[in-house]
Amino acid sequence: MSTVIRGGTVVTHDLSYRADVLIEDGTITQIGEGLTGDTELDATGCYVMPGGIDPHTHLEMPFMGTHSTDDFDSGTRAALAGGTTMVVDFALPQPGQGLLDALKTWDNKSARAHCDYSFHMAVTWWGEQVFDEMQEVVAKHGINSFKHFMAYKGSLMVQDDEMFASFQRLAELGAIALVHAENGDVVADLSAKLLREGTTGPEGHAYSRPPQVEGEAANRAIMIADMAGVPLYVVHVSCEQSHEAIRRARQAGMRVWGEPLIQHLTLDEGEYFHADWDHAARRVMSPPFRSKAHQASLWAGLQSGSLSVVATDHCAFTTAQKRTGVGDFTKIPNGTGGLEDRLPMLWTHGVVPGRLTPNEFVAVTSTNIAKILNCYPRKGAIRVGSDADILVLDPAREKTIAATDQQSAIDYNVFEGQQVSGLPRYVLSRGRVMVDDGTLKPAEGHGRFVARAPRGEVSRALTSWKETTRPRPVDRAGIPASGV
Ligand SMILES: NC(=O)NCCC(=O)O
Ligand SMILES: [Zn+2]
Ligand SMILES: [Zn+2]
After folding, report:
1. For ligand 1, mutation pick of 59, 285, 330, 414 (most atoms within 8 Å of CB)
2. Pocket of ligand 1, beta carbon within 6 A
3. What positions does the domain Amidohydrolase-related occupy (predicted)?
């Protein structure tokens, strides 16, 4: 049973060219002119791209006394409806819980996935058990990326000594470190002060997390990672201060990547001052939305290559869940949705006005993260031998974003009313047509776990570099190294 995508323009991170794509048994087997297959999909006028990879989702995440509402069913339906064919979620051990134990929970949840997925492991506490289990998580479970929260004091936050120990362990194992970079101590203090002084509404969330808390933490994580000799990926970069730290580190040769979110690129801090409490609370996430000047910095980072990936941090709570925080903004569950909207929003605000080329669009939505997470070219590529995870993007197809039409299970959409173009005509997941002429054809349980080996190219290079430049004792004739 073969499928051919005919008449489109193949767009990869480095090339655009007219070609048909032949798919057999879930894999791309030929790319060229005049191909035929059992099923033919007409891509005339469309771009044939690697499906999106969203490396930052929290599906059914236990957080702030509740669970995020989108699970692996609704979350991956939303992904596919918007052209994303792989998500990477976070396995999150409770304090004191083993990593392997937490992984079982995520394995169970993900059985419902409609598209392929992988996991990052979160390091939420530190001890011998975590140190020991990291080895098995990497070697047996195909997870090569570990997340550290520098915020959420009293729940997920880890201290610098724990982070340094974890980063050193990751360097040994050939894995990479991820950080949520915000100074959790300062956030906790500022929050308490704001509440004491009478700021209880959602605007307090933004005031309690100024760009400085993010810039300071990003810089600290970068320096700790450099000393530990581990590559670092900074999630949800929202402001110039953390972007500047990443830019500076990259210019100094450090192995650091930055990930802005589609929300921070397109929505600003004005949302928190909306007269309607629900409107503002629905947009509470960490870090908060920023000013237009910060947005300009993020776009420039994508254009210049100092920022590498656009994600969503999809962590969706209903209005009823958000209302837990009426009278105290620190109790509003942190998180917003975006899985279905990431690609159309980035196309509309990135490619259409000329901020990004179509090739750059592919790079930041798919190929770069596949390389960083060491699953390229199986994912993130239109190449012979790659999984047939393909988005046929129709630049002429348009819609107005509305919660009433979305796959997400929540009752609103932070992009409500936005007019977007660049919608999927077809989306294929390992060759199976999941969006057919714009209509989602869900297949619960179709998704498979994508194992990712350690010691990717950047990890190997950094290990060699750290060995080349490591401190060495000076050999002084006649003077013993240890005391007499
Ligand atoms: N970002 C956010 O507000 N919620 C999800 C958890 C996290 O990534 O910090
Ligand atoms: Zn975070
Ligand atoms: Zn997150």
Report:
1. 285
2. 58, 180, 285-286, 313, 315, 334-335
3. 47-432
Average pLDDT, the chain: 98
Pocket-testing residue among 56, 58, 149, ligand 1, by greatest number of atoms within 8 A of Cβ: 58
CA distance 181 to 219: 9
Å from CA of 57 to ligand 3 middle:
6
Closest ligand 1 atom, residue 315 Cα:
5
Residue 232 lies in a domain: yes
pLDDT (tens digit per residue) in 94-117:
989 999 999 999 999 999 999 999
By alpha-carbon position, which residue is closest to atom 8 of ligand 1? Answer: 313
Is residue 73 included in any domain, yes or no?
Answer: yes
Residue 130 inside a domain? The answer is yes
Which residues have a beta carbon within 5 Å of ligand 3, which is an ion? Answer: 313
Instruction: Please tell me the predicted confidence (pLDDT) of residue 484.
Output: 62
How many domains are contained in the chain? 1
What separation in Å is there between the alpha carbon of 155 and the centre of ligand 3?
A: 14
Domain that holds residue 220: 51-423+446-462
Does residue 4 contact residue 29 with C-beta atoms inside 8 Å?
Answer: no
pLDDT in tens, 281-340: 999 999 999 999 999 999 999 999 999 999 999 999 999 999 999 999 999 999 999 999
Separation CA 168–CA 187 (nearest Å): 27
Residue 138 lies in a domain: yes
Atom 1 of ligand 1: nearest residue by CA position? 286
CA distance 422 to 351: 9
**Phi, psi dihedral angles at 381 (to 5 degrees):** -145, 150
Q: Which pLDDT belongs to residue 483? A: 73
Residue of the nearest CA to atom 4 in ligand 1?
A: 335
Return d(Cα 41, Cα 367) in angstroms, integer: 24
- 415: Cβ contacts below 8 Å, ≥ 6 apart: 266, 267, 338, 341, 345, 401
Query: What would you measure as the largest C-alpha separation in the chain, in angstroms?
Result: 82
Identify the CA nearest to 414 among candidates 334, 323, 349, 336: 336
Distant-in-sequence, close-in-space partners of 432: CB < 8 Å, separation ≥ 6: 26, 443, 446
Of 286, 312, 317, 410, best ligand 1 pocket probe by most atoms within 8 Å of the beta carbon: 286
